[in-house]
Amino acid sequence: MKSQFLLLPFLFALLVQTGCGQKSDKSVEFPPKKSIGTVSGLDILEPGDEVFDPQRKLVWQRCGLGEKWNGAICEGTLKELTFVEAKKMAPKGWKIPTIRELSSISDCENGYRSTKDLGDGLPPLNDSCKGDLDSSSLHSAFKTKTYDLRDGFYFWSASSDKSNDSYVDVISFRTGQINGLPKNDGEAKIFVRYVRDHR
């Protein structure tokens, strides 16, 4: 009996060390924000630094990591990160979007060439823009400035590639194309934009 009581402090310390005693990010409370306008079906939330998708009940950071909202545009330079770095840099309560979430803010002006079946039993996603690729396929609610599109303007998703689980799906906001990149490759560095559930 005495030995059981001696184990209790050890077990408690182990729980704290492994993070089992910590609250998850789902417990983070975000103050409500009013809409200050709508752009192509998405609401811009005050003071302009977040975008709400009422259909999917998602709130997006309007600026990608490395940029900062200055009241009018996202200023600064997007930061290129590995997938591991992008996960670590997510602010509390925010996450890397799934490929379906990320694809929802891709908007090719001239439509898409094809679709991509993710193998998850859900409808295929639009894939690859038709026509002129000189302008970003990023949804207009996020186009607060002109971006350099030379390297494809790729962003991480949190979704594993169904054909190779060492890869994750990424999307080019230049071409609208969905590809895969190795998630543990220290050389694979692209951009990230975080999202959270609306609560």
Descriptive notes:
- With about 200 residues, this protein is an alpha+beta fold.
- It has one domain.
- It is about 15% helix and about 30% strand.
- A five-stranded antiparallel β-sheet has the order 1-2-3-4-12, with no helix packed on it. The chain has a three-stranded antiparallel β-sheet with strand order 9-10-11. A two-stranded antiparallel ribbon has the order 5-6.
- A hairpin with an 8-residue loop joins strand 7 and strand 8.
- The model is unreliable at about 1-25 (pLDDT under 50).
Features:
3 helices, 199 residues, single chain, disordered N terminus, 5-stranded antiparallel beta sheet, alpha+beta
Structural class: alpha+beta
End-to-end Cα distance: 46 Å
Q: Helical segment tally? A: 3
Largest sheet: 5 strands, antiparallel
Strand fraction = 25-35%
Low-confidence parts, pLDDT < 50 over ≥5 residues?
1-24
Number of discrete domains: 1
According to DSSP, the number of beta strands is 12
Q: How would the global form be characterised?
A: globular
Q: Give the spatial strand order of the biggest sheet.
A: 1-2-3-4-12
Q: Gyration radius, to the nearest Å?
A: 20 Å
Order of helices and strands: HEEEEEEHHEEEEEE
Helix percentage range = 10-25%
For the residues shown, what is the average pLDDT? 86
